[in-house]
Amino acid sequence: MSAQTGEPILKSMDYVFPNQGFEKTSDQFMLGDSVMVAPMVAKGTMRMVRFPSLKNGVWKGSDGKIYEGSRLEMIKAPMDSLAFFEIANKK
Prior knowledge:
Elements: H1 2-5, E1 10-11, H2 13-16, E2 29-31, E3 35-37, E4 46-51, E5 58-61, E6 66-67, E7 71-76, E8 84-88
Antiparallel strand pairs: 1-2, 2-3, 3-8, 4-7, 5-6, 5-8
């Protein structure tokens, strides 16, 4: 898809979710349009993640936990794993 459209594969949060206040977010990014990555950037095992608002869906963590959009959540993010979240349909 990227080769056809010229869009980047790794995208800033503001690129995918404009006008949601992600202009200065530098510690989360999107992989395509449906996977959000929130790596650990500081020592510790917990970090704050800001979930963008979704029109039809929720965020599903790599651990299976569901997160609503438009909120901040403290998540477990051990240094030996990568925290990522996929857009999933609401059930």
